[in-house]
Amino acid sequence: MSEGAPPASADPVISLSGVTVRREGVPVLQGVDWRVRAGERWVVLGPNGSGKTTLLQVASARLWPTAGIVEILGARLGRVDVRTLRPRVALVSGSVTRQLRADAPARDVVASGRYGALETWWNRYTDDDWEKADALLARGGVSEIGDRAFGVISEGERQQVLLARALMSDPEILMLDEPFAGLDLGARERLLVQLARLAADPASPPIVLVTHHCEEIPPGFTHGGLVSNGTVVASGPLRDVVTSAHVSSCFGVQVSVGHTDGRWWSRAT
Description:
It is built from nine helices and twelve strands. Helix 4 runs parallel beside helix 6 (155-167). It is α/β, with parallel strands linked by helices and 269 residues long. Strands 6-7-8-3-9-10 form a six-stranded mixed β-sheet, with helices on both faces. It has a four-stranded antiparallel β-sheet with strand order 2-1-4-5, with helices on one face. The two termini are 29 Å apart. The longest helix has 16 residues, at 185-200. The protein has one domain: Rossmann fold (3-Layer(aba) Sandwich). It has helices spanning 52-59, 82-85, 94-99, 106-112, 127-139, 155-167, 185-200, 238-241, 244-251, and strands spanning 12-23, 26-37, 41-45, 67-72, 75-76, 89-92, 173-177, 207-211, 223-228, 231-237, 255-260, 263-268. Strand 11 (255-260) and strand 12 (263-268) form a beta hairpin.
């Protein structure tokens, strides 16, 4: 756990108790218990189809569970207007990408995150808003693409734009669903640097990152969860969870997992 992480007694910002999600009668999540607290930076690992994306959708108030209790930022699903709750939880995912207009300028895509909108003409934006959008693009090293269409920029640039868009609203929780998918080596490393900076900043909100690969765990992350067959099979401090034994069991293949110079790695044995 990082020095800025809160004590274990701190109230969770995300609390899932006995959460189950069924689709067409088939359980996608089963009896999940999970807590995320202020200051924590989580990575969630698991094989394809294990339920990781569904877990994020529930924890970001984008999907209702079939059973169980979900509390987000002190509000319980079913007792809160999710239209007021969802903007407080930023979600970077492929589902967001597919909703955005391909010919929208990248700068507009970032600014629209101020209100969680898909188009800037839905709301009014101040000069400060546009300056913040430009600053977030610059922070991601992509200030030169502000006027380019979102649909024609590279995959790496697109992920930087989506991260900037998520940060535009100063969210209270930041969730990223497989942001490294499809990125080349350079784009992956640039995004890792950005996420490491966020993780190291005490002013950053709690972060939850879903990925398939140990190599994509940013430095500074504090906690880990392993998901397999719709259940959280291990969760807690990162070094206790991301071990050779736990990861091998979760993915069903024997691997060796290590941590060198602040970065994680894994290889088959």
